[in-house]
Amino acid sequence: MTPIPPHPPETAQTLNLTINGRQVSAQAGETILEAARANDIFIPTLCFLEGLSAQGSCRLCMVEIAGSAKLHPACVTRIQEGMEVTTETERLRDYRRNIIELLFSERNHVCAVCVASGHCELQDLASELGVDHISFPCRYPTLAVDASHRRFVLDHNRCILCTRCVRVCAEIEGAHTWDVKNRGIRSLIMADFDAPWGDSETCTGCGKCVHVCPTGALFEKGLAVAEMRKQRPALPTLVANRATEQR
User: Fold this and answer.
1) Is the pLDDT confidence value at 89 over 60?
2) What is the separation of C-alpha 70 from the centre of its chain, rounded to a whole number of angstroms?
């Protein structure tokens, strides 16, 4: 999916809309997710992270809009005057639970032995949505663990392909180390032209990709179960500081 383009320059106009029956205001050009978060209305996400381009790939932020039969991704849908949005219905909860279950069944998410257990966004959302079992057959794929980097590890078994690492490396660090190879269920994150991470000629070792990862797919070496606490970098601040330095 094409990333959401930057906000148009004419964002001074204030628009009025309704979210869950509550009247709210937001600036023209903002998305439903931005308007909701500005008004302390929770919408679950995994691929979205403030400061990175939005791509709407995880589909957990789907909402209902009055007058439309289909669901809409809140992170890439612009608000409109008079729009009526619903973020919490049984239909949406079932939809989101199915997504979480599919993510768990697709790879090998064994929380009891994961370094990110207790500090994992996928695990947190499963708890929030009441996912206590998996309705789909688990695939149990045989996937590699790349520990060739001197500081970090990439575990494909716990990757949910949110591409936060790809985007933060390209858009914030500017290294363009990460990308996605293959298609569909065979998709995997890769460094450079599918080289071991430790052999990458572009990786700066900054660790931004590790700390924006929502699961235990990227982590620091030497940590045991439940010890990987992600320190989210302030991406909007980094971008603003870099823009100031370049003037």
Assistant:
1) yes
2) 22
